[in-house]
Design goal:
alpha/beta, D-Maltodextrin-Binding Protein, domain 2, 2 domains, six-stranded mixed sheet, 11 strands, SsuA/THI5, ABC transporter substrate-binding protein, signal, NMT1/THI5
């Protein structure tokens, strides 16, 4: 059966033609940077918000505008259309962009461990990913980690499309569901359902969340890229350690009114406990992008057919910005 992956680049060549890379300044001389988030404003991007409200980007001479993502505003498409200068990307999304010829360079990882996971009820007999064999899994069709799970454990399961509504999981104790460990477990608990999670990193499929820049922009504006990374790192360090992140959370809620304070606090606590941002075994600190690990993930995505050809990871990354900080 042909697999339909979920990262199409609509009108790709037309978007490339629209891409611009001009540098702009605000009235006070700060360089303007349009940062495209990969999804709606949320605590999982709290370091960028802290970078704005605490002045870490301003200290670098930058005026950073954070732009909401979403189903119709994917970060990759916005980069391609010239609607953003820098973006946060899912690793698999960034590699799909590169495979299709988009001139993007990966300069950092803002999240060392992707929070994606499979969630089951605490009472479920499913204890490992291998136990999903023959069961029903509610997830977004086409996400590559489903095929990785099947291949790693030589199993199969029935897929129920995830619509964003958790009603089925809450009503059916036999269902397993795709989740973020920073999000859905909190809301399940609020409904009285105790859950367990199995992360992708626990089975060796350890994805980054990365920072992507158009090559032309990075070449013309290296100091802006460096300044952005310094502000980002300072913002994340601040967000993870500050006693009070109310200002950042207020800004997040302004851009995404569906969130509540308790849910945001939960997400931040999980990121801190699980070391999602700085990494569990990362001596280089926040932002580091391990090229060898990136190559391993690329090969796995190639083996399951998500990527049709192997990508030159060395040519697709540029660590010189990080290394010069």
């Amino acid at each position: 059966m042909m697999k339909h992956w979920v990262y199409p680049l609509f009108a790709f060549s037309a978007l490339l033609c629209l891409a611009g890379c001009g540098e702009k300044e605000s009235e006070d001389g700060a360089k303007k940077v349009r940062f495209q988030m990969g999804w709606y404003a949320q605590p999982e991007r709290g370091g960028f918000f802290q970078g704005v409200v605490a002045g870490h980007f301003a200290n670098e001479g930058l005026e950073v505008t954070l732009k909401n993502g979403g189903p119709q505003n994917t970060a990759g498409a916005m980069l391609a259309a010239g609607e953003a200068d820098i973006a946060d990307l899912r690793l698999e999304e960034s590699l799909a962009l590169i495979e299709k010829g988009f001139p993007i360079v990966l300069v950092a990882a803002y999240m060392q461990h992707d929070p994606q996971a499979i969630m089951v009820r605490e009472s479920s007999p499913v204890m490992t990913m291998a136990d999903l064999d023959g069961r029903r899994v509610m997830a977004r069709p086409g996400i590559p980690f489903l095929e990785v799970i099947k291949k790693k454990f030589d199993i199969d399961f029935s897929l129920i499309p995830l619509s964003g509504n958790a009603a089925l999981f809450l009503s059916d104790p036999e269902i397993a569901q795709q989740c973020f460990i920073t999000n859905e477990p909190f809301y399940a608990d609020r409904e009285g359902i105790k859950v367990r999670t199995m992360t992708l990193s626990s089975i060796g499929f350890d994805l980054f969340r990365v920072i992507g820049v158009r090559k032309s922009y990075a070449e013309k504006n290296p100091e802006i890229v460096k300044g952005f990374l310094r502000g980002m790192i300072a913002g994340w360090e601040d967000y993870l350690t500050a006693e009070d992140v109310t200002a950042a959370h207020d800004m997040i809620k302004q851009m995404n009114p569906t969130l509540d304070e308790a849910g945001m606090d939960f997400a931040r606590e999980v990121m801190i406990r699980e070391k999602l941002i700085e990494g569990k075994e990362n001596p280089h600190g926040i932002g580091w992008l391990d090229v060898a690990r990136l190559d391993e993930v690329m090969n796995e995505l190639y083996e399951i057919g998500f990527l049709k050809k192997k990508i030159d990871i060395e040519a697709s990354t540029d660590l010189s910005f990080l290394e010069s900080l």
